[in-house]
Amino acid sequence: MVLNCRHVWKEISNYIDDSVSPELREAIEEHLAHCRHCAAVLDSTRNILYLIADERTFELPVGYSERLHTRLREEMAK
Amino acid sequence: MRRGSVPQDEAELIARVLAGQRDLFHELVLPYERSVYFAAYSVLRNEHDAEDVAQEAVLKALKNLASFRGEARFGTWLVSIAVNEARAQLRHNRVLRFQSMDAPAEDEESDFTPAVITDWREVPPEALERRELRQLLRSALESLPEMYREVLVLRDVQEYNIVETAAILSVSQGVVKTRLLRARLMMQKILAPQLRTKRGGGLFGLFKARAGASWF
Questions:
Q1: Does B1 reside within a domain?
Q2: What is the pLDDT of residues A13-68, one digit of tens each?
Q3: Are A14 and B37 a contacting pair at CB < 8 A?
Q4: Which of residues 119-158 of B touch A (CB under 8 A)?
Q5: Three-point CA angle B65, B69, B74, nearest 5°
Q6: Is B83 inside a domain boundary?
Q7: CB B32 within 8 A of CB B79
Q8: How many domains does chain A have?
Q9: pLDDT, greater one: B213 or B31
Q10: Complex ipTM more than 0.90, yes or no
C-alpha cells in the first residue's frame, strides 16, 4: 500500500488514536519516514493536542465548584 | 485524573439518592464537574453562560435522576444534559440577537488540508505558564464551528473516548471520527504557523527583547 500525503492527512486523526489497521499503520509509517512535511504535520498536531489536554489551558472559573454545590444545596432545601 | 474513575458504588450512590439521601448527589456529580462545565463552554464560548448552564444541567440531572436507567454511564448522561442545555441556550441567544441559526453544512466528502510545514520543534508543557500561549490555544478552539468545538473538547480536552463522545452527542462513532479529524487539522492549521512564528522572535512583539526566544 503506497500512500500520498492526502491519504496520510485523512487518516492522521485515526492514526493518533491508534485506530487504524496494522497494514495501514505500516503504510503511514513508511510514508512518514520519507516525508518530512507529513512528519511535521503529525508532530505539530500531537503537540497541540497535548497542550489543549493540559488543565492549565482550560481552567475552571475560580469558585465554580463552590457555587455549583451551594446552588445544589439551595435547590435541595426547597 | 481528569474525569475521575467511575466509582464501584456509583449505582449504589444513585439508588441511595433516589431512596432519599439526597445529600449524596453532591458526591455523585463531583467527578464530572469539570466535564459538565467544559461541555457547556464548548457550545457557548462564554464563561458566565457556561457556568449557568452547568448549574442548570446538574439541577436537571437531580430532578430527572429517577429516569436515569443505567444504560449509559451516569457521567455521559450528565454531560449530554449539559450539551443539550447549552445548545438550547445558544439558540435562545441567537434568537435574541436575530442571528442566523444555520449551521454550516457538514460535507463528509470535502478535503481538509493542514498547514504544511517542514519541521516542528516541540512546544513543551512548561510553556503553558505563559498566559499568551494559553490564550492562543483557547482562541483557536473558540474559532472553530460549533460541531467541531464540541467534539474536540469532549475528546481532546476532557479525554472521553470515541464511544463516550458519540453517546454524549447522540451521533455515530463515524461522525465523531470525521468531525474529530477536521477539528484537529483545523487546530493544526491555525496554530502550527503561529507557534512557529512566535518561537522565531515574537509575533506580537512580546519576545523581541530576547533574540531567538523560545516558549520558555
A1: no
A2: 999 999 999 999 999 999 999 999 999 999 999 999 999 999 999 999 999 999 99
A3: no
A4: 119-120, 122-123, 125, 127-129, 133-134, 137-138, 141, 152-153, 156-157
A5: 65
A6: yes
A7: yes
A8: 1
A9: B31
A10: yes
